[in-house]
Amino acid sequence: MTRIVSGSCLCSAVTFEVSGKIDAFFLCHCSRCRKDTGSAHASNLFAADATLTWLTGGNQVRTFRLPDTRHAKSFCSVCGSALPTVEAKGVTIPAGSLDDIVAIRPDAHIFGASRAAWDHDLDDVPVHDGLPGVPSSDWAVDNATAHGLAVAGVMRLG
Q1: How many angstroms from the chain centroid is the CA of residue 109?
Q2: Residue 111 to residue 68: CA distance in whole angstroms
Q3: 84 with 92: CB under 8 angstroms?
Q4: What is the mean pLDDT of the chain?
Q5: CA-CA distance, 97 to 85, in Å (whole number)?
Q6: Beta carbons within 8 Å of 91's beta carbon, 6+ residues apart
Q7: What is the pLDDT of residue 68?
Q8: In what order do the strands lie in the sheet with 3-8?
Q9: Domain boundaries in the chain?
Q10: Would you say 43 and 74 are in contact if contact means Cβ atoms under 8 Å apart?
Q11: What pLDDT band is residue 158 in, cutting at 50, 70 and 90?
């Protein structure tokens, strides 16, 4: 069965649809994925026989290919959000770029030997529904403001 999923970038300049079967969902801990996401891992869906259609903003999409590797990342040139990348073996879709619910769980963590040193026992880390120390009535604060508060020392991050 062909499934269509849709997504967009943070600023909504780029919107897309991917039509096809999702073959795998991996959390990649390789150093390249950690660098280009700025996080513990990339969360990517892989679809070998899928079709990617840019609905809006296709001219805003840029792709960086790391020389002499298979590593590539597409992103919005306006806001920098990760976007799907068409590769020889199909389409790589950043799970966070989807506006639809991702109805499958990841299949595996990959490149586990490259995990960040701090990426372990995370089930023990407290979970907050909003910003720690900020009343729920103020949760509408955007991420840029939240980051500014953290940098200014208003929020404790560790």
Answers
A1: 15
A2: 19
A3: yes
A4: 84
A5: 12
A6: 18, 20, 46, 47, 50, 51, 52, 84, 85
A7: 86
A8: 3-8, 15-20, 51-56
A9: 3-114, 127-158
A10: no
A11: very low
Least Cα distance to 78 among 150, 14, 4, 156 occurs for: 14
| Average pLDDT, integer, range 66-73 | 84
pTM for the full predicted model? 0.79
Q: Domain 3-114's class?
A: mainly beta
Residue located via tokens 């990348």: 85
Q: Which of 64, 75, 66 shows the shortest CA–CA distance to 16?
A: 75
Query: What is the Cα–Cα distance from 10 to 149, expressed in whole angstroms?
Result: 21
Residue 153 reports pLDDT greater than 70:
no
Choice between 37 and 15, residue whose per-residue pLDDT is larger: 15
Q: What is the mean pLDDT of residues 36-62?
A: 93
* Number of residues written out for the chain: 158
Q: CA geometry: angle at 97 spanning 16 and 39, to 5°? A: 150
Pick the closest to residue 9 from 72, 75, 63, 55 (CA basis): 75
Which residue type sits at 43? S
